[in-house]
Amino acid sequence: MRHFDYARAESPQQAVAAHGSDRDAAFLAGGTTLLDLVKLDVMQPQKVVDINGVDLTTIERLDDGRLRIGAMVTNTALARDERVVEDYAVLSQALLAGASTQLRNKATTGGNIMQRVRCPYFRDGVSACNKREPGSGCAAIGGVNRTVHAVLGTSDACIATHPSDMCVAMAAIGATVEVQGPEGSREIDFGDFHLLPGDTPAREHALEPGELITHVVLEAPIHGSRSAYLKLRDRQSYQFALASSAVIVRMDGDIIREARVAMGGVGTKPWRAPEVEAALKGRTASEALFADAARLAFEKATAYSQNGYKIPLGQQAIVRNLSDLTAA
């Protein structure tokens, strides 16, 4: 049995102070990732700071139209919030497509952003994994890499996909992550929060030691837009995406005036596709246009031994979503 220190916090300031800059400390929210990996002995925190007493459960509309979400808002509460359902349907759908009802009732907004990869070589505790043990290698590159391994944003050090559905929707919407740490408060653009593996896959996000996510602020909704999340997976229930797309479009008749596209299941981080958005903007909606634009998203893709199918599947996820939204 491993021993660790435990502390409870009732404010972000208390949480940050209790955590300090200790890289071996961890914040505990819903616990759907942390407790799982502690049981597997993959994560071994020397200190656990419980933030369930911290009041970060509010969702509020800001004066500029943005939506500010407390980090402790559960996935269930966020998915069912009337403002999210009405203005950010893509986010509500993405949340409801992830995990089970029981997990959504516990999982938090901040925790979802911070969740770790589902690569079995990372989680088994013994295989070569640069994310778990830097410098040990990546067993997935030459191993079983069909489902939870990426074709975009990969490196010789890591090919694991980011597992979140929620984050794909937030990448399409655009957001800011508010954090508080030993050096004070700051904001991080959502697109910059998750890091590509490069040569340092053990560093997954832009947080500094001891920083706590307090809120996520979504950009104001695009007036007159339609949005949807499409998740393709081996089975409908409780399964991670093989490929997914979060799409937001604003139409003027048959003309696409604005488009935002992000993908999941295919990238090492929630994958925004600006090249697809640029190819769609100002064009007449058609299957041919969607297919051409979707191909652009994968021009720099790298297929591995078992996951090359994700390239055409990812393209289909974009095309099908765009077709449904523009036909509405």
TrEMBL record:
Any one GO MF annotation of this record: FAD binding
UniProt keyword NAD, yes or no: no
UniProt key word Flavoprotein: yes
Keywords from the UniProt entry: FAD, Flavoprotein
SMART domains: CO_deh_flav_C
InterPro entries: CO_DH_flav_C, CO_DH_flav_C_dom_sf, Diverse_Substr_Oxidored, FAD-bd_PCMH, FAD-bd_PCMH-like_sf, FAD-bd_PCMH_sub1, FAD-bd_PCMH_sub2, Mopterin_DH_FAD-bd
A Pfam family annotated for this UniProt entry: FAD_binding_5
Tree of life domain: Bacteria
Domain FAD-binding PCMH-type: 1-223
Protein name: Molybdopterin dehydrogenase, FAD-binding protein
Source organism of this protein record: Chromohalobacter israelensis (strain ATCC BAA-138 / DSM 3043 / CIP 106854 / NCIMB 13768 / 1H11) (Chromohalobacter salexigens)
Lineage of source species: Bacteria, Pseudomonadati, Pseudomonadota, Gammaproteobacteria, Oceanospirillales
